[in-house]
Specification:
Rossmann fold, alpha/beta, single chain
């Protein structure tokens, strides 16, 4: 939800970030009856945490001029496509400085680029990519850099089952998806709750090999966990450094950001670039939205929310100009290997 809350501010008489946005249209409708019924079950049976997977897919579908995810419309569902469509439409009509979903667009592109960089950084050999809290992620079907990688999607059983059912229903009933195949060398779906102690064991049972080079992708997941759960997940991943070259890609909220939804968010870190070295990672790079590697041509206006925060010291909790909380989202790439760890 942070991705929408932070980027829905409407500023009258300001200029939109992207002057080249194509004609806005509501994509992917109508669904087939079977797919529509599956999405209706999501609306009635899933809690807000699980439904956030569909919200993320809808955001990617509506930002399709920069994110090329052919499955996003299918996996999002009509409810969330319409909701974000109306927000974007309203923001554009009001010339908002921050168009709804821009954080999601930048976040998706950042993770895409860093996954490719991480895979390319390994000196050959088999590579594993683990998507924790994968939800309705379609990377195994769209990222060419994964063609030699074994991909593992970890999430709740009902989320993974629903995702498989939607994809199967689309394959059976529409010409568009009849030839749907993964680009990844292999794709394994691992039903596990990462808040439980057995998720890593289940990952290994599904074919994960600790001795193989691994990219861990924690996109939009850590802040939904309790502090103890989040730290345990990070400790498990850090422990893998002793076996092989490891890259962790994650986004972190600062303390002010979790106040946007006290009922949804818990874990935060104001200094994740200090936290991760303390766990054993030897090379950590932090980016904020709008930094050179977290920009993607979408944040030109120096007065937008994100650029205004970037100019302030990270230690500030309250903006000195308007008294608003300094809500930050950090993108972090952390690397480690058996020969380069910090005790």
């Amino acid at each position: 939800m942070l991705l929408h809350n932070l980027s829905m501010s409407v500023h009258e008489n300001s200029q939109p970030e992207d002057q080249t946005w194509p004609e806005l249209e509501l994509p992917g409708l109508p669904y087939t009856d079977t797919v529509g019924k599956l999405h209706a079950a999501i609306e009635t049976d899933w809690d807000s945490l699980r439904r956030s997977a569909c919200q993320t897919a809808a955001g990617r579908a509506l930002w399709k001029h920069v994110i090329h995810d052919p499955l996003a419309e299918l996996l999002a569902g009509e409810t969330y496509l319409r909701s974000i469509y109306e927000k974007i439409k309203k923001d554009r009509l009001n010339n908002a400085r921050e168009i709804s979903g821009v954080i999601l667009a930048v976040r998706t592109l950042w993770f895409d680029s860093k996954i490719e960089d991480a895979i390319n950084s390994f000196d050959g050999g088999a590579t594993q990519v683990v998507l924790l809290g994968a939800g309705m992620d379609g990377r195994a079907y769209r990222l060419s850099c994964l063609k030699e990688s074994n991909v593992f999607e970890v999430d709740f059983l009902e989320v993974l089952q629903m995702k498989s059912n939607i994809l199967q229903a689309a394959t059976d009933s529409t010409n568009e998806f009849q030839n749907l195949k993964t680009i990844a060398k292999s794709l394994s779906r691992v039903a596990a709750d990462i808040r439980d102690n057995d998720w890593f064991e289940k990952l290994q049972t599904s074919g994960f090999v600790p001795e193989k080079n691994t990219v861990w992708v924690l996109e939009g997941i850590l802040y939904y966990l309790s502090h103890s759960n989040a730290m345990e997940v990070l400790h498990v991943i850090a422990a893998n450094i002793t076996h092989t070259s490891t890259v962790l890609l994650a986004d972190f909220m600062n303390k002010q950001s979790i106040t946007l939804s006290s009922s949804m968010f818990d874990f935060y870190s104001d200094w994740p670039d200090h936290l991760l070295p303390s766990l054993g990672f030897s090379d950590v790079k932090l980016s904020q939205i709008g930094d050179p590697d977290a920009h993607f041509g979408l944040l030109h206006d120096p007065q937008n929310l994100f650029n205004k925060l970037r100019s302030l010291p990270r230690s500030l909790q309250i903006h000195p100009d308007d008294g608003t909380p300094c809500c930050r989202l950090y993108f972090v790439k952390a690397c480690g290997s058996p020969n380069h760890t910090i005790a």
